[in-house]
Amino acid sequence: MYHYHKIFKNDMQMYLNIQTLSLAMAGFVLFTDFFGLSAYSKDAEKELSPGERFHHETSLTWRGVIGDVFRSKPKKPPQYKNYPDSKIIKLPKPAYRGIPLEEAIGKRRSVRNYSSKPLTMFQLSQLLFSAQGITGKLYDQSLRTAPSAGALYPIEVYVIANTIEGLPQGIYHYDVLNHSLELVKSGDFSKEITAGGLEQEMLGDADVTFVLSAIFDRVRHKYGERGFRYAYIEAGHISQNIYLQAVSLGLGSVSVGAFLDEKINDLIGVDGQTEAVLYLHAVGTL
Asked: CB within 8 A of 40, min separation 6: which ones?
């Protein structure tokens, strides 16, 4: 009987401690609100453009950090996206050892003109591994080549294959966990990616164009609206990895942020809300 009474006392104490902490945090929020400890004044808010408003609404303040504890967030989606009924193409194991990192950084340029030689499957495999390949584990959480806020990895990589040896033209999804491709659509989509990319011809001329999309709730379930920023930042990390790996492989590449969102979302088959395209990256032989 004493044992159960002791557990009850411990549970009650924990409950009271949580209640006390919650009241203290709520008081802090009211304090910061009263003294105006926020990123922008109310007058400034009225004059914000859409881009400025996004930056403002996702800015961190102490009021926001504490308030975020009580704010509802979306449920966490699955960590990995798959196309279970699609054709699977296993990629060669990445094993390339190229030029020193410092040399690759020094040679990195945005290249928009490519030769007619096709990309090899080995080169494609190495580029995808550099973009999002799994490099290890920590507490049963797979870690990848590019950093991600909270190791939540919201970015998905799609491959628009144009001229790759041994790979039919089409749109593929990169299965990170198995280092393989999943066929999404068969066919030549060079005209569609060019049109969706504001007629930037290198997107259709490239041997491959990588499409980086984000499943936002993978980060929003933990970080709230700030998670949108983390997804955009991560796309940049991944693109830089592609750039440097392309240099090391003797390839040319260019990242593209100017595109018609709805057209590219439709092209790869995402809704533009729960998952949306953030960035394009074309790669071709020289």
From this structure: 48, 56, 59
Domains of the chain: 2-70 (no CATH), 88-285 (3.40.109.10)
Phi, psi at residue 182, to the nearest 5°? -115, 125
pLDDT in tens, 180-223: 999 999 999 999 999 999 999 999 999 999 999 999 999 999 99
Residues counted in the chain: 286
Residue whose pair of structure tokens reads 């990170």 in the numeric block = 176
Segments of 47-140 assigned E as strands? 88-90, 134-138
CA distance 67 to 69: 5
Q: Taking the model in full, what pTM does it have?
A: 0.85
Whole-angstrom distance between the N-terminal and C-terminal Cα of the chain? 80
Supply φ then ψ for residue 91, to 5 degrees. Answer: -90, 150
3-state helix, strand, coil in the chain (%, to 5): 45, 20, 35
The pairing of strands 180-186 and 88-90 is: antiparallel
